[in-house]
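STRUCTURE:
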């Protein structure tokens, strides 16, 4: 059995140009994004392990915020999730799997979470 290390950032709220309907295009929509990234784990994490033994959690948050291209309209939130996955794969060869959950906040009427979850595995 292989060990695993899962880094997580949950419920990051950010505005993204996304949508296919006329009332959605041309204006940012609020999204709630959660990311889970699996990394190859070290044999042990000692008390004095340096950050290089893991990955900075803020890299995950950055991929969901500043890492998204400005001025680009994503028709589908699946495309937003795919971009986040690719960003994390490019950042660190130790990332083996990324799961991105996106909730479209603007269409919630009573607090329900409407959206999708995409999981990608490193293909190289």
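SEQUENCE:
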């Amino acid at each position: 059995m292989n060990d695993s290390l899962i880094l997580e950032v949950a419920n990051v709220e950010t505005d993204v140009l996304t949508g296919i309907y006329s009332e959605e295009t041309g204006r940012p929509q609020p999204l709630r994004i959660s990311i889970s990234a699996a990394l190859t784990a070290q044999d042990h994490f000692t008390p004095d392990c340096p950050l290089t033994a893991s990955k900075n959690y803020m890299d995950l948050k950055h991929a969901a915020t500043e890492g998204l291209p400005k001025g680009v309209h994503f028709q589908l939130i699946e495309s937003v999730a795919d971009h986040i996955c690719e960003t994390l794969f490019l950042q660190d060869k130790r990332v083996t799997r990324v799961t991105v959950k996106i909730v479209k906040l603007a269409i919630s009427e009573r607090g329900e979470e409407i959206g999708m979850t995409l999981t990608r595995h490193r293909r190289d």
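REMARK: The first helix runs from residue 57 to 64.
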